[in-house]
Amino acid sequence: MGKFLVINRPPTHQTRRGSVSKCVNHFVDMNMTGKARVYPIAGLKGYATLVDVKSHEELKLVLSGNDMGNIEKYTVIALGELKD
Among the four residues 9, 32, 72, 76, which has the most C-beta atoms within 10 Å? Predict the structure, then answer.
């Protein structure tokens, strides 16, 4: 389907420590397994993630795997061809 740049930023208010560690683990795991290339945003909280997915459902799984996804701000930018 296509390549996407996903930028996620947590809210400015305090977050629960457990959610933060699960969020970090989600992005570390995606990077370690080769599902995505994940880059911390220097000087800020959040990540820039490059993903190559075969369907919208696969993209949704990448986004929903983050335990803090319901409170974070996501920006999703299509970088490659979309045929879905």
Answer: 72
